[in-house]
Give the backbone structure.
Amino acid sequence: MTKYWFAAIAAIAMTFAPAADTAPDWETLFDGRSFAGWQSITGRAVPASSWTIEDGCMRAKPNGRAIEDIRTAKTYRNFELEVEWRCPRTSNSGIKYLLFGITEDQTEEGTRARTRGFEYQLAGEEGERKAKAEPKYATGSLYGVIAPSDPHQRDEGEFNVSRIVVNGSRVEHWLNGGKLLEYSLASSAFAEAFQSNRKQAPLAKVAWESPIVLQNHNSEFWFRKVRIRPLR
C-alpha cells in the first residue's frame, strides 16, 4: 500500500480566521456531458471502469476489481458546495473535503484508490436503517464523528440536494434545505471527537485547502448539478 499526501499540507498553516460573508457567483463543477475538471484521486484520467456519464449524471459504478474516487482539479478552502444525488436502497457513498491523503492498492485486478478526509456520508434506505443504531454513519453525518439531525431523505429514485459550507472555522452540513449539523474546527470538543475515530489522521495532517471528492464505494450512485462558490 502506498500513501500519498497532498503537498499543500506542509505549506498551509492551520488558521481559523473567519471569512467574509461576500461570495462570487456559483461555479459549475460538472457540465452534465463530460468529466472536464475532474480526475482520478491519483491524478490520472477518470477511470472508465469506475465512472461513466449517464443521463446527465456522473455515475459511480460497482466494480470489485478496481475502484477509484474522483476529485476536482481545483482546490478550495472556504466554500459553499451543492451536489444533487440519488442511489439504490443498498448503496453507499460520500462527499469528501479537507483531505489528508489517499491510499492506493495495486492488485492483480487493477487499482483501488480511496481518499481520506472529512466525509459527508451518503447512503441508501438500507444504510439508513442500519445507521439508526450508529447515527454517526447516517446520511449527512460527518462520517464516524458527528451524527446528523433528522435527514429528511427523499424516496429511492428521487434526487436529494446536499450542501456543505466551510467558512473559516465553521462547517455546516445540509440536506434538502434542512441543516443537519454544524461544528467548529477550532473547538476542543470537535478535536476530541475527531481524534476518537481511529481511522482519522491528526488534525495537523489535514490540508485546509484541498479538492472536492466524490467517493466510489463499490456501489451505484448518481451525481449531478455539482456547483461551488468560494467564500471570501
Notes: The chain is about 10% helix and 40% strand. The first helix runs from residue 8 to 11. The helical segments are 8-11, 125-131, 188-196. Confidence is low (pLDDT under 50) at residues 1-22.
